[in-house]
Amino acid sequence: MSKGQRAAQDRSRERRAIAKARRRRLRKAAARSGAAATVAALAWGGLVLPPATAADGDPVLVADIAPGAGDSFEDWDMSASAALGEILLFAADDGVHGRELWRTDGTAAGTRMVKDLAPGADGSWPGAFVTFGDVVYFSARSAPGTEDGLWRTDGTAAGTTLVVPDAGVGEMYAWRGRLYFEGYDEAHGSELWSSDGTPAGTALLKDLNTRTETYEGTTHPESSSPFSFTALGDRLYFAADDGDQTELWATDGTAAGTRPVVDHPPEDFFHARRLAAVGDTLFFSGYDTNGEELWRSDGTPAGTRMVVDLAPGSDPMYGPNKTRPNNLTAFGQALYFEAFGSLWTSDGTAQGTIRVTDADTVDDIADEYGDLIATEHALYFSGHDDDHGYELWRSDGTSAGTALVQDIYPGTSPRYGREYPNSSQAHVLGRTPTRLYFTADDGSHGRELWSLSLADVPTTPGTPGTPTTPPSGAPTPSACAPATAAATTAQAEVAKAKKRLAKAKKAHRAAAVKAAKRKLRKAKKAAAAAAAAQAAACG
């Protein structure tokens, strides 16, 4: 099991106690109202639910995998899937077998567990799904306490086999007829591995971090833990820790051809992550003395640079202000990403990096779990507004073309002495050619599998992937555009901080009020610095 999956499993255990308490409350409420739900029978042949009554184009509940109010998915199960034609393969927990390998064709009858890879209630914890030819490769453990092995499946129980046991498989990527992934052995730690999909063709490609560390008298190898694989041109790019920095690396598939794009000195404290390719440009989130900002690269040291500093200045206590670009996604001919709770786009230039949405459209975009996926006609993400909570949203890349898909968990619930909108916490799981799959909690079934027909996506204004008119308050391209963008962003953060403080005061939560005041002070300092920078840049 990779370090990320171990951490995820730990978070899962912590959440289960909260989830159980929530399910008890739901059952009691249902019993009081006389509307206790009847649960469909779970069988190896599939799950049975009443026929969907939603209109064409509306999201539908595919199957209640963990019957009743139980959750078959965790709230961090984002993009943990792979498609074989119209079949989606993913990991789910039915409450009996633990977290195991499942498949769906978009119907309740066609949704079933593929194979119980690790019998027992703990499950095998499949992950790192990647389509490779006419099969899907993934990571899973054979028993509790073992490292994740490399597995393959054609979507059937007989066609699901273990390729390499205890390989410590992390993130995986298919490129030029081979798999590239984070793999583990005791001699090297977690390093860059490659496979042709067979046991004999699976081996360490290169040890990127050759250092060792001694703990309690035992010497262990350090790990580079490569991640965020993205192909561009004739190279595969990724981020990895060489012992000094988390650098941007590139490989041509050979050990000799695997090297950092830029080898920063240790004192630079550089960190790269969240890679995405658009056209002939590689974008990523890079951290240096400017904080964490949007970067771009053409694969050369000279062509690797920051695009724009959207959060200039620094705080004496917290260091440089940070934009933290999240969910970098190619859509059309542009890059889209989340920052400051809004959707942004960039063409790779400072003046071409603009905010698409603001608080008048959607006041927050979930950024924690990589929840932004592009189809041919739209971007989908988990968004929030004050009327609906966190639900599934869709955008054509313009402010006017960004809207709520459906309020899956309508209504309100009392919290801290006032009513707040319910949230389905919808998060995108994956897609097939004709359907988008996501997980959501409608308040009755727990977090379950939902889908949306992509064939029914309405045509929205604007050219997909190309923003039309920037929203009100967004900067227009000019010499002072980056500074204006930063100042606008900083002022928006002040407004958000004030809003949070007001909510905390209404709820009479002393700790929350204290934290909100601290964030407001920080936001005001950043806004003052941004305003000064704008005045200097724009004259």
Write the layout of secondary structure elements.
Layout: H1 3-33, E1 42-43, E2 46-47, E3 60-63, E4 81-84, E5 87-93, E6 99-104, E7 112-115, E8 127-132, E9 135-140, E10 149-153, E11 161-164, E12 172-175, E13 178-185, E14 189-195, E15 202-206, E16 212-215, E17 218-221, E18 227-232, E19 235-241, E20 246-251, E21 259-260, E22 271-278, E23 281-288, E24 291-297, E25 305-308, E26 314-315, E27 319-320, E28 326-331, E29 334-339, E30 342-346, E31 354-355, E32 364-365, E33 372-374, E34 379-385, E35 389-395, E36 402-406, E37 412-415, E38 418-421, E39 427-431, E40 435-441, E41 447-453, H2 481-506, H3 510-538
Antiparallel strand pairs: 1-2, 3-41, 4-5, 5-6, 6-7, 8-9, 9-10, 10-11, 12-13, 13-14, 14-15, 16-17, 18-19, 19-20, 20-21, 22-23, 23-24, 24-25, 26-27, 28-29, 29-30, 30-31, 32-34, 33-34, 34-35, 35-36, 37-38, 39-40, 40-41
Alpha-carbon distance between the termini?
Answer: 55 Å
List segments where confidence is low: pLDDT < 50 over at least 5 consecutive residues: 1-46, 48-56, 467-479
Number of helices: 3
Mean pLDDT: 82
What kind of assembly state do the chains in view correspond to? single chain
* Beta-strand content: 35-45%
Structure classification:
alpha+beta
Q: Indicate the overall shape.
A: globular
Please give a structural write-up.
With about 550 residues, the chain is an alpha+beta fold. Among the domains are: about 1-55 and about 65-170, no CATH class; about 480-539. Helices cover about 15% and strands about 40% of the residues. The chain is built from three helices and 41 strands. The strands form twelve sheets. Strands 32, 33, 34, 35 and 36 form a five-stranded antiparallel β-sheet that branches. A four-stranded antiparallel β-sheet has the order 3-41-40-39, with no helix packed on it. Strands 4-5-6-7 form a four-stranded antiparallel β-sheet, with no helix packed on it. A hairpin with a 5-residue loop joins strand 40 (about 435-440) and strand 41 (about 445-455). The termini are far apart. About 45% of the residues are buried. Residues about 1-45, about 50-55 and about 465-480 have low confidence and may be disordered.
